[in-house]
Design brief:
Layout (H helix, E strand, L loop, with lengths): L3 E3 L9 E8 L2 E5 L7 H12 L3 E5 L5 H14 L5 E4 L3 H8 L5 E5 L2 H11 L6 E4 L5 E4 L5 H13 L11 E5 L3 H15 L15 H16 L3 E4 L14 E4 L6 H4 L6 E7 L2 H9 L6 E5 L3 H10 L4 E4 L20 E2 L4 H7 L1 E8 L15 H11 L1
Parallel strand pairs: 3-4, 3-6, 4-5, 6-7, 8-9, 8-13, 9-12, 11-12, 13-14
Antiparallel strand pairs: 1-2, 2-16, 7-15, 10-11
Amino acid sequence: MRPQRAGVSIWFQPGRARIVKQPLGVVGVIAPWNYPVLLAVAPLVSALAAGNRVMIKMSELTPRTGELLARLMRGAFSDDRVTVFNGGVDLARAFAALPFDHLLFTGSTAVGRQVMAAAAPNLTPVTLELGGKSPALVAPGYPPDAAARRIMWGKCLNAGQTCIAPDYVLLPESAESAFVAAARDEVRRLYPSGAASADYSAIVSDAHYRRLTAWAEEARQQGANLIPLGDGLSDVSRKMPPVILTHVEDGMRVMQEEIFGPLLPVRTYAHFDEALAYITARPRPLAFYYFDEDRARTRRVLERTVAGGVTVNDTILHIGQVHLPFGGVGASGMGVYHGEAGFTTFSKRTGVFVQSRWSVLGAAKPPYGRLAERLLRWMVR
């Protein structure tokens, strides 16, 4: 937070330069429903650390959590320091249109476009944490059972309702059966009672439950093979067991849209380069998961792919590293926060130059003479 010294060109010496970090002012945070506390409080911490005041809009799909957070914030902060708002879509639209000094939104790419459009008339800078189809790529030779265990943990977390959940898997043709068998065993180990387990999350709403079941049925009708990894669906509890989909095609909605649920398409490849080309030809995801024991090949893959964040040989874990910036790229978002990156995002880095009593540039001001001519020749040679 202290002013930071900056270099000064020889032509401007003995002047001094520094970078001063200042609060932006009022920061707006629009939190989603899937991790409402984490995704409201994490940007709040960064914004407060940078000296700002913060207004938070909670999701209308988690009203009880929103009300609880509002009460807790009122007990900890004055209303002119932190304020939490709860309400529906109309309130969210009005919130996004306020003239904030910075606005952070976490949610879908489609709504992110609307938030950015609402902020544009005020020239409000935005940080958009979106999503997309985060791939998991299993390299040749990597044990498929080890990959399945770690992928299914990340996929089943919150029943797949995680912005950085593995969205689909690419693995060698010879590894498919072993992967599916290991995935089934891992789900049984994690959730002994299947979808009825208390540790397994429900789908957030009836609308999202219907969307997921419709996408699964559409894929089945178009030729996909559905492999449930638990008990049957429950319309009452909205507990949907993990389902692996094989023989998927690009035209299916499960391969076009971010799934945000426990459906996991699995594609196989004959040649590793074709799998890598499949990923790089698509919009840049919020997360990329790569499984490989070959360090040289891992380095080459990371050089060729661009994603918001990467975990190698596991899933999800990069988001928990406070010293790593977190944020999307392209269709998966813009801007970063977490740790020092969050402090920087919510700060204005102001450049300050302090002129000395004497400056060589005084000789370069009009009226120009021989001294100025010699000085300019010396500067440009």
